Amino acid sequence: MVLDKIEGPNDIKKLDMQELPALAEEIREFLIQRIAEHGGHLASNLGVVELTMALHLCFQLPEDKIIWDVGHQSYTHKLLTGRREGFGSLRKFKGMSGFPKRKESGCDSFDTGHSSTSISAGLGYAAAREVTGDSYQVVSVIGDGALTGGMAWEALNNASLLEANFIIVLNDNKMSISENVGGLSRHLGSLRTAEAYQDLKMGITNSLNKIPVYGERMVEQIRRTKSGIKQLFIQGMLFENMGLTYLGPVDGHNIHAMLDVFQKASKVNGAVLVHVITEKGRGYLPAERHPARFHGTEAFDIETGLPLRKRTVANYTDVFSTVMRKLGGRDPKVVAITAAMEDGTGLKRFHNMFPDRFFDVGIAEGHAVTFAAGLAAAGLKPVVAVYSSFLQRAYDQMLHDVCIQELPVTFAIDRAGIVGSDGETHQGIFDLSYLTSIPNMNVMAPKNKWELSDMVKFAVDFGRPIAIRYPRGEAYAGLKEHRDNIIYGKSETIYMESQVALVAVGSMVKTAEAVYHRLKGLGYCCTLVNARFVKPLDTELLGELAKSHQLLVTMEENVLNGGFGEHVGRYLNETIGQIPGFKLLHIAIPDGYVEHGNVDILKQELGIDSESVVNRIVDLMQEFDEI
Hints:
Strand order of the largest sheet: 7-6-8-9-11-10-15
Radius of gyration: 28 Å
Strand content: 5-15%
Oligomer: single chain
Largest sheet: 7 strands, mixed
Number of strands: 17
Distance between the termini: 70 Å
Number of helices: 24
Shape: globular
Structural class: alpha/beta
């Protein structure tokens, strides 16, 4: 096994070149086996095996810096830096992350998880290197999908000003290679990056610039003529016109070709973009045929590619998908927007049925929101479907473009709360805090699958900005008999008693129901309330509960700071003040970032599972007895 020879960073450099094809094959077999067992990101990792090998052969880690955009394609990088044993705990609690983590290895230069960030981060490294006088090289790897993000283009624009070497690898897994154009591009790339050419170009430019009056004009004319000629031959003129040197396209599965182009790229004084063509899912037929399905996958059968655990119950995304399809058929003004997450957000069926009313804007959440605002201003009913952690990137657009004008945009926020294995960058635990901070924004959360359906229908006809946040995974089917009509700003009282009032938000209603029954078994009288609205608060009910109960418990799957509980506490303090014999308890996620792991384990660690909540309530109620 060639892979057995890789025990740490740069061990790949000790191999014979003849061993590299075998290593690539063994890496693919290893990744398929491990991800089939535990789940993870497969298609993207299979596509960059040779690219990663070439980078590790050409550069010296950890001295040189490789920054992976998003980072879900970093599994081969982790293998080549000696973390093979960590794959047994990949994405598990306290185990190895599925993304680059600086605290995990010195070879991980930058923590990533969201898209379109690697060029900005790499440019920061390159600029810092010039300030400190260091000599390491910087490589940012970005996919063609991530390049749809506006932040990437802001960074490219800024990178054009850099006078020192900075390599940007564009991992393009959609375009095919044109042999004629590719060969000519490689030839011209060799000329442009040869040391003699670089020296000659600088010498001519400096000499002409010394000629009074006419020198600068001659340089500019030559530049324009040269650019015009290059327009005829070179695919990368968009980047060249931005001030970047473009090399490629190069076959991303040909290690020798990539080593050659990376060596040339290292000689460029300035930012250079290397265009690499790869095939997503390469080496595993099911992933080649269905790369989207194997983007992030659960454990699966290798022979068939089918999941080992078949879903028999609908998840919240399925429910949203169904109600959107129905609403699209009923109302021609309903339109749907997503940011490169058609499958993930459940809009594929809407797209198939109403293609003229479906808009995928690419990885551009900020644009998605302002685009939706324009649709709303023109009289349509836009629904923006997005993951909670990704919507963070569009805070300004929600505040500035939607809510100031109070436009009727509905935000369908999937993956709210704890999402599990993807870790800190993907946990949707801040949305209640940032959404409720925006004037004119209204925020709802459903207790079960039927209420999600009702809320989406309510939202599209609401006529003002409104957000519905719902969790990842199986849709709760309990409390079906409790399905009161949604009234703006009003909670739903499920059980009304005394002593302890449980006021829960969205997914925490299920937990609160379990807490309710546990407390009843211990002899306590309990009230259970489904908050429904996080903003506005049901102030009337909250005031009544505070006056008729000893303990009011708020429950949410959001950080404490700025969340539902804090809003409730502030309201009661400002309007009622201190009530003798009354206490308020907030069940929320402690302020901080939540690492990757099983959702149930994470909830226990965070103290928001039913057993932890019951223990805290019992302790407080016993304090009342001691008074």
